[in-house]
Amino acid sequence: MNEPVLVVTVVRTGGLAGLRREWRAEVDETDAPSWWPLVEACPWDADLDADGVPDRFVYDVRANEREARLPESRLQGPWSELADAVRRRAEGEA
Asked: What is the pTM of this model?
């Protein structure tokens, strides 16, 4: 693989057991055209404050210099698509 032009990490913490999981996707320029739209679709500047529900997961998402922390209840739409793509790549499914 060439040098990555995009590195996306998703870290899930919390839940009843307080377990931490991390997935990482390193994307080179060949795959970047399919990944950039996923990153750009996420509302990085939106107010993503916690939903106040105890024992739920919290997701820290990072794409190069962009960062967001969101509660499990906000992991939908573009956030869900990006997190799923990172998980699939990290687990060797894509």
From this structure: 0.88
Is 10:23 a contact under the CB 8 Å cutoff? yes
Identify the DSSP state of 14: E
Question: Percentages helix, strand, coil for the chain, rounded to the nearest 5?
Answer: 30, 30, 40
Residue from 33, 24, 86, 32 nearest 78 by CA? 86
Q: pLDDT tens for residues 40-71? A: 999 998 877 666 666 788 999 999 999 999 99
Residue 57 Cα distances to 3, 9, 86, angstroms = 32, 16, 17
